[in-house]
Amino acid sequence: MGSRVMLPANVTAPFQIYVNGVAQRLGSDYRVEGDRLVFSRPLAHEGKLGFWRWLSIFFGFAGSYRRHDTVDVVYERGGERAVATGLPLVDDE
C-alpha cells in the first residue's frame, strides 16, 4: 500500500504534485481521496536524528543516508501561483 499526504486547506484543483522534484501523474502515481493524496508507492521521511547520530554526522563519522521523500504541491491562489512544500506523511488509520 502507498503513502498518504494531507493537502493544505487552501489547495483546490487543479494542482500539480511533485515527489522529490519529479512530476507525478494523477491515476498512475497518486489519487485524491477527499483532502488527501494517496500515492501508489510508499514514501519515507527520515524523522528526527537522535543525539548520537547527530553527533556522528557533525564530526564526520557518518552521513545521513536514510530515505527522505519530499512532496510538493503547486496550485493557484488568488490568480497567482503558490507552492506548498514538504507536506508531511499521514499515518494510516
Question: How do you describe this structure in short?
Answer:
It contains one helix and eight strands, in the order E-E-E-E-E-H-E-E-E.
Write the layout of secondary structure elements.
Layout: E1 4-6, E2 15-19, E3 22-23, E4 30-33, E5 36-39, H1 51-58, E6 71-77, E7 80-84, E8 89-90
Antiparallel strand pairs: 1-5, 1-8, 2-3, 2-6, 4-5, 6-7
What gyration radius follows from the Cα positions, in whole Å? Answer: 16 Å
Oligomer: single chain
What is the approximate shape?
A: elongated
Which structural class do you get from the secondary structure elements?
mainly beta
What is the count of DSSP helices, taking H or I runs of 4+ residues? 1
Helical proportion? under 10%
Order of H and E elements: EEEEEHEEE
Poorly predicted runs are none
How much of the sequence is in beta strands? 25-35%
